[in-house]
Amino acid sequence: MSYENDAYRYAIRNAFDHKGKADAGALIGKLKALYPDADVKELVPFARVAAERVNNMGMDEIHAEFDKFNAEGFELKIPDKKVGLQDLDWAANEPVVTRYAPNPSAPGHLGHLRPAILSYLYAKKYNGKFILRFDDTDPKLKKPMEDGEQMYLDDLKWFGVVPDVVMRASDRFELYDDYMMQLVQMGKGYLCTCDKEVWKTHIMKQEACPCRELDVNEQLERLKKFFNHTYKQGEVVLRIKTSLTHEDPSQRDWPLARIVDKPLHYRVKGRYVWPTYNFASAIDDHLMGTTLIIRGQEHFQNMLKQKWLYAHFGWNYPHAFHHGRLLMPGSDLSKSKMIAGIASGKFTGWDDPRLCTIRALKRKGFTPQGLHDLIVDLGVKTSDTIIDLQLLGTFNKKYVEQAPNFTLIANPIPLEVDFGPDLEVKVDDKIVHLKQGRQPFFVSKEDAQQWKDGTTIRLRNAYIAKINFIDEYHVNAQFVSTKKIENTNQINWLPEGVDVQITMPDAQPVFGLAEAQAVHAQVNDEVHFQNFGFCRVDEKTASEIKLWFTHA
Q1: Which H or E run contains 192?
Q2: Could you tell me what percent of the chain has a pLDDT over 70?
Q3: Quick one: which of 214, 205, 107, 224 has its CA closest to 156?
Q4: Beta strands 456-459 and 464-470: pairing type?
C-alpha cells in the first residue's frame, strides 16, 4: 500500500484529462475509493502534494508518465478486505526491521501495545528484526518512571513478544549532538533566539526570522553556547530549515532541540540539551535500519516532519502504517490522567479495574491469546475502533470456555421453606439432597424484592413454594408441590456455599454466594458463574474468595 505512489499516478491521469492541471479534490475521492478504511484527513496531504508536483510538470512529461502507467494497466483494483496482517509488497527486496518506541512514563494500555504486537508479528512473518527502543528523552512533561521500562518488558513478555534488540534514547545523547552539529554545518539547521511569539508571527507570515539568515559560522558559535549551557531555558531553540511556505504551519522550521535547566530524569543528570521526539526518533530509525514503522494516526504529521530531516541527509524514509485509535468508553486511556488519578487516590494502582492497562486486563482475567487475536483482526486499519467488554469477550471467550461452571447467588438472602419433602434433585449436573421439614435456601435479594406475601415461586429443579413472610433480611415460604405450575417464575438457589466478592469493571464489589465446589478454584483460575459471567480468582482467604469480573 502506498498512498504517495497511487496519489501520483492518479494525479498524472487527472492532469492528462484536464490539460495539464490535476485537482487535489478529485484525487482524494480516488484514494478514498481505493482505501475505504483510510481516514480522509490522512489522504489529503498526499493528494495535495501529488497535485502540486504534477502541476509543475510540462505536458510532454505528463504524456510520458501517462503512457507508462497506461501500459501497466492504469486502473488499480480496489483490494478486498483482508483479515490479519497485510502483505508487504516490498518485503521481497528489503529486510523487514520494525521498532516499537514507547515513552516509559507509565505502563502501556491496549492501544499502546497494539503497534508493539503488530510490529513484532510483521518482523517474525518476514524473518526480520524487532527493536524495542525506549523513547525517554522528555525530562519535564512526560518524564520516564524508574520502573517504566520493566513494566513494558513484562507486558510484552506476557504476550510472548521478545525483542531482538532493547535500547533507550537517553543512552544516545552524544550521537544526537553530532547530528545537530552536522545539520548546522550543512546550513540546514539554525539557532533561534527570537521571542516565541515574534518567531510565530514570522512563520505565520511565511517569512524567515532574523536568526535563520545568519551565516554558518555564527550558527556554530551559537551552537557552542547551546551545548555548554551558556543559553538558559527559553532563550534559544535549535530548528530545522524546511519550507516557510508549507501549507501546514506546524511543518515550518520545527524544533530539533531545546534547553531544559532543571530536567526531571531519574537516570540522566547534568544534561541540559534535550532533543525533541521527532529529531531523536528520526535519527534512530535511520541508524537502526528501520524499514517499517507502525504507529497511531496522531503521528502522521510527525512522519511528514521527519521526512524533512531525511531529505537533508539524503536518507530514504521507512515504510509506515498509521492506525486509528482504540476508544474504550468508561476507561481513562490518557497516561497523564492515569498518573494523576493514582496520585490522588482515584485509582488504586496501574491495575485498577477502571483502567485499560495491560496489567488491569490481565488481572481481570483476559488472556494474551484473546487480546492478540483482537489486535491482529484490527490490523492497521485507519479508522477508530470502540472497544467494550462485549468485543473483548468475543475474542477471549474461546480461551476460557473450558472454565469450571458454578452457580452464583448475587446479594444472597436466606429463604426457609417449611413442610418440604425429602428429595434429591439434579442441578447443573450435580445431585443436591433436600431434607424433609424446614429446608434452608439462599436466593438473590433482587429476586426476593419482586415477591410479596402469597407469591408462588418455583425453586429451579426442586419444587413450588408460596411466600408466607418477607422482609429485607429474610424470607419464609411453605412447600406447595413438586409439579410444575404454569407462569411460575423459576428461581436460582443454593442450599449452602462459599462467600465470594467480585470486583466489577467500575471497581464496585458484588457480594454473593457460590456453590461449595467453587472453594477448589485456585488463584488465577478462570471460573464461570451461570447467568453472570466469567471471573478470575484474585485472592482466597479462609472465609471468602475474591474474584475480578472478566466478561459475560
Answers
A1: strand 189-192
A2: 97
A3: 107
A4: antiparallel
